[in-house]
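Translate sequence into structure tokens.
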Amino acid sequence: MAHVERAVRAAVGQSYESIEIILYDGPAEQDRVAFVDKLAATDVRVKVLRDTRKLSAVECVAASRAAASGEYFMWLDESSWIDPRYVATGVDYLAHNALHVLVHGTCIRHDHKGAQSESAPAAVTFEDPARRVETFVGNVNGHDAWYGLHRLAILSGVPIHPALGFEYSWLTSAAWRGKIAAQPDMKLYRDGPADDSDASNRVIRLGLGNFQATDPWLTVAALQFCNLAFFDDALAHLPPIERARLGAIAADAISQRQRILDEGMMISFSARLFPSEPILEQFRMLRTTLADAVLALRSVSSTDPFVQNLVGTINILCRMRIGNIPMTKEDKDIIRQIEVMWDSDQATASQNKVAIVSAMYL
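Result follows.
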């Protein structure tokens, strides 16, 4: 209860007074209900949303955002609080920088032993959205920016997927939509370590599938890939190969930084994360698209950026064991095509294409 009060009082005490404070309150103890109701009765800025159901943390986040009516929005939970000028500084920055969709500040963490650590905010400011995504997933370690101030109208459509790493996925989509600013003077305070190593406890708190805790960073990587390659509507105009490239870069960045137990289970995890989606079919169609692109190459030049990106994407998909996806008649036609090419065309370029395509079907 003390932590809840701390977060709420940090919001109420902002120097920027023209704010709406939404308190999403589920089944609660009497002292918390009394505190929330008393605050709402004495401060017209406070709006209480009460739900008798036991919602997951992800559902609460989505519901509170849907209820917001302001131009800007930010989240706080019971483990976080902000300095009195956090909102004012963020609003001032976004009001004068139209191409930025989110601004965040320095995160100061307090662990259970009383030790304090500080991490500086990271900016992502390239004009090209693909470059912003590449920069974010490659250089931003952690999701402190999740607690930044953002433009609600632009980012309200970004999906919040019920999975470990939903913050990373959301922020990656935010980077596609606009620039992310860093303002060190904005101070965010958090309880707990930067890396929540107790995945099982986090899965329970978020109300997620237990399987995610068996390989938590694989879950995050799978979510990043699927969001970019298949689900984020803002990327729908991109060719499937480019979407796959961005998804592969995001998944690979996590693989390089974190401990994934079995990268070959990524497609299986993806299917379990999105049980209502035809995930295996989407991966199979992507495999066909990549195979067609390779076979259409005039040459396989290691200095050609398109070839480099194409081969790099295929390599990452092979680590995901895309070859384990059952083959259709169309897939078997491709296999026969490369078998004929292998037997009839001994040119180096043709043999290289056969090798690259074959790797996705092994």
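Note: The chain has a mean pLDDT of 90.
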